[in-house]
Amino acid sequence: MDDERIGKVFMVIEERRDAFIEELLDFLKIPSVSADSSYRIDVRRAAEWLVASLARLGMETKIFETGNHPIVFGELFTSFDRPTLLVYGHYDVQPPDPLDEWTNNPFDPSIRDGYVYARGASDDKGQLFAHMKALDAWRQCGFELPVNLKFIFEGEEEIGSPSLEAFLKNNEDLLKADAVVISDGHQFAKGIPAITYGLRGLAYFEVEVEGPKMDLHSGGFGGLVMNPIHALIFILSRLKDLKDRILIDNFYDDVIMPDEEEREMIRQLPFDEEALRKELGVQELFGEDGFLPLERKSFRPTLDINGIWGGYQKEGAKTIIPSRAGAKVSIRLVPNQRHDVVTRLFVEYLKKIAPPAVK
């Protein structure tokens, strides 16, 4: 692959920049929120948009149905003598809430100061679209691909990819490749790209605490029953200490420490803590003692409360003892931690610390 051909490809990309961006904006307008069933039709619409786009690029396409959202597959075969490259991406996006924090409608893309603002612009519609347009520009130059190319775009990444493992096992021959490219992460800093060789895993939980069978008036029943919100706060406060150490029994037993070579690689990165604090709008970075910030975000497991609900939330006062309360909790896993083991430890610990007055 010579520099002259690469230069011509970039010329085509620059010439068609506006058209490519308009096409991306159309894609971003589709609210493909996988976590919310009310968007189910839109997720399907995004999959069909991809199939049509891949077909225009000359690819053989197929939609694979799952128990939930479909997986899109595209293939462009060039020669048995060439290696095969498999590109992974996901077309589903996170829920856009809270909407009042957005400057523009998250599904009505806006371009400001050279940046596209929309849900999915950087996770992961923008990245998978870049691969598609690279293929588009290459073909417009009349060049033959130096590889056989396969695309796999799923619609469930933001909910933990529940259908992906079975799909991979059931389609091993179809998905055979010499290399896989996944563009679904961060560059280290502006102008500094990164090759990511691993990501932390995920265990996700919904915790619900039940008290009385109906909401009660706090004036008539306060002091007689345990408030589920109080119980939930008690439980959540005992998941971690104030130094961000996870308190679940035996949680760290299987955690592998980074070796010295990896820690040295981390130390050599040009990490600007002050710039990151300013970007995030926080006074200081926070995390587990004994580890650098980049070590904590890469090599250490973490636990976070992602959402919490219970009681009266609307304007004014309603003095109730709610019948139930709940929270969503995620745990990021590192190598050698098993999802099933961590799940068992989490559930056992909750049962151990939960007040007996609620369930």
Description:
The chain has eleven helices and twelve strands. Helix 1 (3-15) packs across helix 4 (125-140) and helix 2 packs antiparallel against helix 4. It is of the alpha+beta class and 359 residues long. It has helices at 3-15, 17-28, 40-56, 125-140, 164-170, 218-221, 228-237, 260-268, 273-280, 293-299, 339-353; strands spanning 60-64, 71-76, 84-90, 110-112, 115-117, 148-154, 179-182, 201-210, 216-217, 302-310, 320-321, 324-333. The model has no long low-confidence stretch (mean pLDDT 93). It folds into two domains: 3-182, Zn peptidases (Aminopeptidase, 3-Layer(aba) Sandwich), CATH 3.40.630; 201-353, Alpha-Beta Plaits, CATH 3.30.70.360. The strands form four sheets. It has a five-stranded mixed beta sheet, covered by helices on one side. Strands 8-12-10 form a three-stranded antiparallel beta sheet. Strands 4-5 form a two-stranded antiparallel ribbon.
List the helices and strands and how they pair.
Layout: H1 3-15, H2 17-28, H3 40-56, E1 60-64, E2 71-76, E3 84-90, E4 110-112, E5 115-117, H4 125-140, E6 148-154, H5 164-170, E7 179-182, E8 201-210, E9 216-217, H6 218-221, H7 228-237, H8 260-268, H9 273-280, H10 293-299, E10 302-310, E11 320-321, E12 324-333, H11 339-353
Helix pairs in contact: 1-4, 2-4
State the main characteristics:
359 residues; alpha+beta; Aminopeptidase; Alpha-Beta Plaits; five-stranded mixed β-sheet; three-stranded antiparallel β-sheet; 11 helices; 12 strands; 19% strand; peptidase activity; protease; Cyt/Met_Dipeptidase; M20/M25/M40 family metallo-hydrolase
